[in-house]
Amino acid sequence: MRKVLIALKKKEENVEKIAGELLSDIAEVLFLEDIEDGVEDVEVLVLFQWRGVIGEGLIGRLRSLKFIQALTAGVNHLPFEEIPENVLVASNSGANAEYIAEHAFALMLAAAKRLFLHDRLLRKGEFRQDIFSKPLRGSVLGILGLGSIGRRILELGCSFGMKVYAVRKSGKPEAGAEFVGTPDDLPYVLREADYLVIALPLTRHTEGLIGERELSLMKRDAVLVNVSRGKIIDQEALYRHLLSNREFTACLDVWWNYPRAEESFRQDFPFEKLPNVVMTPHIAPLVPGYFENMLRHALENVRTFLLWDSPANIVDRKDYVP
Questions:
Q1: Which of the residues 151, 152, 168, 229 is marked catalytic?
Q2: Catalytic annotation on 43?
Q3: Domain spans in the chain, listed from the N-terminal domain onward
Q4: Is 263 a known active-site residue?
Q5: Which superfamily is assigned to 97-279 in CATH?
Q6: By the 8 A CB rule, do 159 and 108 touch?
Q7: pLDDT tens, 223-268?
């Protein structure tokens, strides 16, 4: 029987139970506790994290490895230079798209309706009715990336009566969008967008995509929402743009620096001191049962690989290594 190694402990988040339901009839499933029992004939590796979990030298012991399935939608944390070129790598795109799209709109609405500002003022006893909010209906929603998250954001935007302009690698049209362009059309979408949501994977092509020049193209009162990866935006450029353009708002769920246990949250620039930033601690996908949902979604793709050799969400390693 073919072997699958899930780089998690059996008792974590019902891992053993879910793996048994989805794979026990077609594969022998191993877990972190089983690594010393022999992994030379493992064909599939399922993982959440690499560093600190996949021990040094383990990848070399997986001599029969054919397929790596990530539990996360982003795979920029994987060391592609250590992964043999003949091994397929799949992201878990789509597993949490609904929740992340909802969070993107929660941030967008909080900024548009000035919710945090009004909350602060009322707590100080200030009953201000001279501060106007921004409408969504009739405004332009720009979306960078039309993967599973981007497409769901598009659907929500249409339900709010927004005009959607998007950028995707292929430039292929998408139902509901008034305009879909290639990366060459990024300046046009930046100029038109009242709200801009970043829903791109972090690759060597997208890192630093939004910098000083790109921010300067946007409307002075635009709202920028990032629910993908912090490093897609140039950190210093965004901070300086927010500092000098107080009508511009950034809504950030993802960051450049993540605190380790017991550390305080801190970036290279003090975004927390700016009034035109709405911040959440990378919680967009976190709803009850989210991890089990991620695991099921990933293992269903593993099952597809084992049965039909046609898994979804295969990533192009050239996006991550030259």
A1: 229
A2: no
A3: 2-95+289-319, 97-279
A4: yes
A5: NAD(P)-binding Rossmann-like Domain (3.40.50.720)
A6: no
A7: 999 999 999 999 999 999 999 999 999 999 999 999 988 899 999 9
